[in-house]
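Final report, section 2: Outcomes. Of the targets proposed, Oligosaccharyl transferase delta subunit is the one most frequently requested by collaborating groups, and we therefore present its record in full.
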Amino acid sequence: MHLSTLLLPLAAAAAVHASALTVQNARVTVSSDATQLLTEQLSLDGTLPSLSLGPTDTLKLTFQVAEKDGGKGVQPHQTFLRFESGGEEGVQPVRVTAGGKAKFELNMAKPPSSLPPTTTEPVKVQLLLGSFKHSPSKFDLFELTVPASAPPAQHPDEASFHPLPPIEHTFRPEQKVPPKFVSAVFSALVVAPWVVLLGLWSTLQYRVPHLFSPHILPFTSSLAAFEALLLWYWVDLKLGQVLLYGAILGVVTAVTGKQALGAAGDWRLGKR
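The predicted structure is given below as tokens.
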């Protein structure tokens, strides 16, 4: 096997190692009301320091991004601070100069929106670096204890979005149907006048030859139409429709009734 083929993986590994990024001169300062409370040089290889901030304290972080071997300052394409606490996380972009220097301030009086909701559990702070020419890097900076987040203020319309109790419908009890015997009795009473009328017609049609006269039959038919209208109303029609159709039938009944009375008077006087 050719020697260059054997050295190719080693050369690639060396190039990747040479293109790694590191952080130099990382320092954190805590102050309150223009009074410096703490300043500490960060060592990225040892145990993470634990810092604490009060409600009005300000944390200032400064560092420089450089190549791991050459020590030359580098401006990464992406630089972020990652805050993680209790399963919640937030990412804050950090501006880095062309020489690799960066500065970030965390004012607890006005915390950034990237800081996740906090409890008594410390917030782990990491630095994330991304570059097209260098390998991505991640550094654990420190653990930060901050005051617990206050509950969010209640929105005026919050109650409108709460689940409402289920709507319970109260249905009317089923309509009670009268006994069949009572229904049959009243049906017979309704039909009885027509039975009597037909019976009278069958006995008087030979004595009174004018019952089926064109002057009498329209009036009788209008009366039958009224009965049919009431039956239709009971089955399907509404009250407004019954009043409309009844008014039309009323006019027809009045006209045919007047004509029938006139014809009956003429027959009695012998004019017809």
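The radius of gyration is 51 Å.
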